[in-house]
């Protein structure tokens, strides 16, 4: 057995006492299905789907129709189990806890065959006291229940009135009643994603043993005092005191680069205790603030906090502290009814430009640190400054937010509720309250997070009557809405985090929604708050169709991913736009027809006699269409920043839908083969299908290598619109792509994300332009 043992010791010389022992249970576990007919090893953190794939028992879950073929996995009840021996004398410790950072989702936990607790929330952290059941040699079991079956049971038990929607649209091939389980909502399917409601231990699991007292949690918030013109730091530490007597001592907080150190005397009574500290930064010290990308540096300061307690017990924590203020400004605008909706960072108005973030994979154990960094670096490279963490996914892992802090990416953080109404029975609310309180504590120290939002589109769903609720029944659902997002989530945010604003939904009318009783008659108004806008019928080259709103937090157009992406999850009979595979992969009703319609407004549709050539050209054309549509709409919102026309405008944010994909399928994403669609700006005087004189461009490339970078020297025989460079499955980023090539030669750089060779690139390289279709 691989040993994962951390001894947390004091750092202050002899005579000190070990604060705690932490023993990790990561690594190999045993997994079996409900009737015991299937047993296999599996990794923790991980999930059942990944374990089955790693053992060769299933194919890639994303291959062809496997989202349907493997539905049985999510409908079974799986058990994770492990036996282990402690490498230390467990009897010497007063308190022993089992810590589960993330369980997906419904489980009963047995420790040495004794039931110690249950889990019902993927987004919560669980701690169970195992002091009286732990031994030198131990067994642990997590007996999971299918989240699909659990959700159906919970819905059936809610007999007072229905809580819609029951099921997703048929085109999504998904599971039902996801709003009754606190699990990643898109795991039951979405209009861009598959249904893989898996089971497993998706985050860290460990055992903690301690004497006297233990620091359970430590968090902080920088607060700027405008009247005194100085910074303060509010620090909160949560302790479990197992001593029968009070524990006294001192706390020393130090931020060396700010020449700040302060000492406090504390006394901890037995039981669960909270210590609140207030650290003042002298106004004579210059504090460099954290700024979004493109507006300044992301300066942070190292802070240490040392608890010197009775009995020689010392506990030390360290953290990076960033100082920044954020304000959501909603105020009257001259020449326009309604209110503004924009953000000030450190007192400076910032236009939010970026995208929406969804989970990077259906199976979180496959989301590596390297993948997160590559995706987030791509955001910065594309000159974005904001991502909205959408409410149908997950609260991202710590490293995501740490990278956003480091890179200067502002985060609009939804709570995980989306496109549904939700129950408000006490058990559900208790689970939500624990989830929200935990996530606030976990995330509030990150300067990148600039706003909390209660949900995605649920105010609009309710007030625009997506679910055909009768007018007489609507007050019931409004009451539930206010109970969940205002009386519970908002209450917890206001109590737990004073450093950033909160809105109940997106889209919402902000202050106007509050004035109307927390639900607005038109939550998508151009005069208040933010809007979500989608229009696949109007000509996207005509900027007059777009709303001149205060803030556009969702908008976009679909496209297909590149052929090299699809090729890995399909077979030859799938390679046509009307194949069973293409229809199956499209989860948005009418999406394929909408793409062709929009493309046909300005481009000639492919007419090759070669079916495969037609498929590849059609895929390429949907990407060109998407890029042009998103470009036109984004430019419209940015241009509307500084103008009021017909009483509308003052747009201060544009976040297109969506940055990344979760699988290989048509979607609104701009990233697929980890490539970013970011063409150079240009303007066409007419639709290209009406252009005269375009002839087929013969484009060649000579590839050379300079260190870790590859140089593509391109040469063309004619003007080539929308030149697209493709290197197949080799991950990396071109310095430019999707460009208009009017000059005879052009040099493009390729930055690989994994080691590769010139010969591999030459074999994989393919270039396409619009003239290949014409």
From TrEMBL:
The keyword ATP-binding does not apply. It is found in: Lysosome. One of its GO terms (molecular function) is beta-mannosidase activity. The keyword Signal applies. Residues 343-503 form the Glycoside hydrolase family 2 catalytic domain. GO terms for biological process: carbohydrate metabolic process; glycoprotein catabolic process. It comes from the Eukaryota. Keywords: Disulfide bond, Glycoprotein, Glycosidase, Hydrolase, Lysosome, Signal. Belongs to the glycosyl hydrolase 2 family. Monomer. This is Beta-mannosidase. It comes from Rhinopithecus bieti. The gene is MANBA.
